Amino acid sequence: MPKWVIHRKWCRKLGISEEVADGTNELIDFPENWISKNIEADDLDLNVHIRYLQEIGVITGFSPLHHDWGRRRKWELDFLLDLAYGAYGEDGVKCVFLHHALDYIGTVGKIFPKSEILKRIKNRLWSPYYSNMLLDVLDFLDKHFNEILADIESGLGNAKPQKRQNPKKITSSKVRRKSPRVFSTYKLGNIIITSKFLQENWEEILQKGIRFVYMDYTSSVWFSEQDERSFVKWWMDNMAPRLVKIKNDIAFLLAQDKTVWELVFSLGLDSEVLEEYLRTIYTRLATSRSLPPVEDWIREVKFYIRNFWRFI
Question: Out of 50-59, 202-211, 264-273, 289-298, which region has the weakest mean confidence (pLDDT)?
Fold first, then answer.
């Protein structure tokens, strides 16, 4: 892996200060140190998610904070980007992307051509909230790829990352920068759907389905079944998981069951197909736990869907 001197050099060439570079590099390589030093418990939304994941057994037995944090799992990268943005703004997010990109180039730089490496970096690090910043970094990598690879191959990048100095503690006022997650946006080609649009048209969407409501709204943009499927995938990656903070069986089901949302967004909340699917789930769940009568349970599931924006 490239040493910090390499990360620092290319952050500087990207126009990022050494202070931000060192702070972000510590957040990635030594996340527990960075978090304990910079954020009080009540400032860190990550604590809530970690506690929940521990409770349901997803990460039991190991710490979710590790060296090269953000590389193994999608939710880790999402949290990492939010923390970097909260602490250092757009420069922090770009530094996260650049750090992981340099590490990846150091691993496969001699194996794949530049075009394939940049494609893989984009796929690995894609986030709809920070897409413009990732594209800026990819353009930068494209222009300087050979220089970066030469630096890494020169021998400077063959040791474990080390801290040249202890990065400065950042003030709490910097940490509290608002995450752009509140402006969650789905984009595919000409299709753009914001969380504001979803909230304002939620009842109609639950009646007609997302495609028809969106086409009525724009009057000009066609929204195909393929667009709908892509939208549902985005929804499952970025919106549905927000229900887990409620911490009950129905919220957890809706946070992970893609089929429920496919039926909701394509056929509406009151479709017979959705109700039949919920009955199937109920039958399976009832074998291992005590549930209310099936009709009551289905009404409760629909209640959470109808009131989604109140709960997240």
Answer: 50-59
Instruction: Indicate the helix (H) or strand (E) that contains 193.
Output: strand 191-194
Residues 6+ apart with CB under 8 A from 151: 2, 6, 9, 10, 157
Domain ranges of the chain: 4-175, 184-311
- Tokens representing 39 are 């954020």
Q: Which residues share a beta bridge with 193? A: 186
Query: Residue written as tokens 């970096």?
Result: 121
In the chain, the N- to C-terminal Cα span, in Å, equals 38
CA separation (Å) from 76 to 72, 205, 217, 293? 7, 31, 35, 38
Residue 66 pLDDT level (bands cut at 50, 70, 90)? low
| Token output for 1 | 């892996």
Structure tokens at 158: 């063959």
Contact (CB, 8 A) for 261 and 236:
yes
